[in-house]
Write a structure and sequence with these properties.
Elements lengths: L9 H10 L23 H6 L1 H22 L3 H6 L3 H9 L7 E2 L2 H11 L8 H23 L11 H24 L8 H11 L5 H20 L5 H16 L26 H6 L1 H25 L6 H17 L6 E2 L1 H10 L5 H16 L9 H15 L2 H10 L1 H16 L2 H21 L3 E6 L5 E4 L11 E6 L8 H11 L9 E5 L8 H16 L3 E5 L3 H9 L2 H5 L8 H13 L3
Parallel strand pairs: 5-6, 6-7
Antiparallel strand pairs: 1-2, 3-4, 3-5
Length: 585
């Protein structure tokens, strides 16, 4: 029988039931591992998503062409990312909203790394890109088999905001060369800026003017026009103008011939040594995909009061990246930007993404010819606007106001992306996030709880002579007890019980925040209990959870201190301490 929170309102119960997969009429509706994102499988649901799918395609086709530019591959490979990979996730994923396609973050990750070992756009480079996608799919499949979805939690929103801001700066700078029609040879952002600055006098004024116009139109339309595919209309207008006025002869380079047709199917041809070379790159892509896709899917599931099978989504992402590798394109990811576009267009299931893929198929078969006239500066300008959108100034401002320490963490991540590289920044972001978490556990909040006139207890800084009341100290420790922080716990209790002026007869540890105890801390705690007992100080534990009680029993703490001094509630522990204090020990 399904239960819901006691006292919940009817609207809250409906929301709760939808989140648990309960449909109207009380029937339990559980998502299947396959076709989960397409449910309910009805004609009405399919037809409802046709128009959103068309709208999504019109908005995103220019973007995926731009993502191919970020990836260092031919424009056609961008269209390939929204063909078979899109279908793969639609069939095997769980989220009805998540759009899985080309993504600037993952494109920047492998492009910045692989461009050091192969020339972007070359046959060797494309083979390495394909192998990266295949290895990423293998990592994702392993994550599904071993249920490693929890890895998404190791990239916090803070570092993700900083990371994407850094990628936005990196991609934006990389596009400046195309926007003013100058060539840059370096893959380093700072070196690119230097080269662009030196080549600026030889740049094309016409290309720069056209790029500025495109950027202005797209950025203004984002704020005032939401349902009109301005990027697509801009690209179409640029193609028409280029064909009519021969812009190439006026110092505005164009893409040139873009081959059409279906992608070639096959395993990327690389050597064993090259396979090992791209493993770290695939691992970086894997981490970003897990973090970004899971965060996006969770956010939209919460918005629509739905439940999402994270393991099924990981399987869908694995299938999508395997399809990308075998169809000659690059790593795909769950895109928050494109998912937002899909929602605004009215998409309610993966049927919209299947419609999107169908339109891309038509473009590949019949309409790639006109792409030859697309000015490179226009494509660069479209990508530049994508890069600008990745810098979430509002979120950075909120982080700075609410948590300056986390803001510094975000900035370090962003600067690392720009100055060192994307892959290195991901590893640093994970390391810094873990270090910050360990630091909080190593230096937890501790306090002595003092009575106030209202009858409550107010936490105050602990120190020699601090007493909750005569003869009794009520002490709170704000983290699990483990090998790195037990010294703080031991030192605090020794300090609190060492003042001779006001002798302590009993110490109560408010253990609500302590959920487990490791071997090292348990040995130190047993020694402390013996030391306190030698000075006629009794130690009590209050608010002991079942998990902590199991650890206390296993490590022999309960037997050492006495089962009568371990309580599941605080008031029982305090009452027992009062009795000991009143009896004089």
């Amino acid at each position: 029988m399904l239960s819901y929170p006691e006292g919940a309102k009817s609207s809250e119960i409906q929301c709760y039931c939808r989140g648990r997969g309960v449909g109207e009429g009380g029937a339990v509706r559980k998502r299947l591992s396959v076709l989960g994102g397409l449910r309910p499988l009805t004609w009405a649901n399919a037809l409802r998503n046709v128009v959103p799918g068309v709208t999504l395609a019109s908005m995103n086709i220019p973007q995926v062409l731009g993502y191919a530019r970020i990836a260092g591959t031919a424009p056609i490979t961008g269209l390939y990312t929204v063909l078979l990979p899109l279908v793969g996730f639609a069939l095997f994923g769980s989220s009805p909203h998540l759009v899985v396609a080309a993504d600037s973050a993952t494109a920047a990750i492998f492009a910045s790394s692989l461009s050091r070992v192969a020339v972007p756009g070359s046959a060797r480079y494309l083979a390495l890109v394909g192998m990266t996608a295949l290895e990423t799919a293998a990592f994702l499949l392993a994550a599904r088999v071993f249920k490693l979805g929890f890895l998404a939690d190791f990239l916090s929103r803070t570092v993700l905001v900083g990371f994407l801001a850094g990628v936005g700066v990196q991609v934006g700078v990389a596009m400046l060369g195309d926007m003013i029609a100058v060539h840059t040879s370096s893959q380093n952002t700072l070196a690119q800026l230097w080269q662009i600055a030196h080549a600026l006098p030889s740049g094309s004024v016409a290309a720069a003017s056209l790029s500025g116009l495109v950027v202005a139109v797209i950025l203004v339309s984002r704020r005032h026009v939401h349902r009109v595919p301005i990027p697509l209309l801009t690209v179409l207008a640029a193609i028409a103008a280029s064909a009519a006025f021969h812009l190439r002869t006026h110092g505005i380079p164009t893409l040139g011939a873009v081959p059409g047709g279906l992608p070639a199917w096959g395993i990327p041809s690389v050597t064993w040594a090259q396979t090992l070379t791209v493993l770290p790159v695939a691992a970086s892509c894997f981490v970003m995909i897990i973090a970004q896709s899971a965060a996006t899917a969770r956010a939209f599931a919460a918005r629509h009061a739905e439940s999402v099978d994270a393991d099924a989504d990981i399987l869908g992402l694995a299938v999508a990246n395997a399809a990308a590798a075998l169809s000659g394109t690059f790593v795909v990811n769950g895109s928050p930007t494109q998912t937002t576009m899909a929602e605004r267009a009215g998409a309610t299931s993966q049927f919209a993404q299947l419609v999107f893929a169908g339109i891309v198929l038509v473009v590949l078969l019949f309409f790639t010819g006109p792409l030859r006239y697309l000015p490179r500066c226009v494509l660069g300008a479209v990508v530049f606007t994508i890069a600008v959108g990745m810098i979430d100034v509002g979120a950075l401002g909120e982080i700075r106001r609410e948590s300056p320490g986390e803001f510094r963490l975000a900035m370090v991540t962003a600067v690392t992306v720009v100055t060192v590289g994307v892959g290195e920044a991901i590893m640093l972001a994970i390391a810094l996030s873990l270090f910050r978490h360990v630091r909080h556990s190593y230096r937890p909040h501790t306090a002595v709880l003092l009575p106030v006139p209202t009858g409550d207890r107010h936490p105050t800084l602990r120190g020699a002579g601090s007493r909750t009341e005569p003869g009794v100290v009520l002490y709170r420790f704000g983290a699990d007890l483990f090998y790195a922080n037990y010294n703080r716990f031991i030192d605090d209790l020794r300090t609190l019980t060492s003042a001779a002026a006001l002798p302590v007869r009993a110490v109560v540890v408010e253990a609500g925040a302590i959920t487990n105890l490791d071997f090292t801390a348990a040995r130190a705690l047993r020694d402390l209990i013996a030391s306190l007992a030698a000075r006629d100080v009794a130690l009590f534990f209050g608010r002991v959870s079942p998990s902590l009680r199991a650890d206390l029993d296993r490590h022999g703490i309960t037997a050492t201190v006495g089962a009568a001094r371990v309580y599941s509630t605080l008031h029982e522990a305090v009452a027992a301490a009062h009795a000991i204090s009143a009896a004089g020990g």
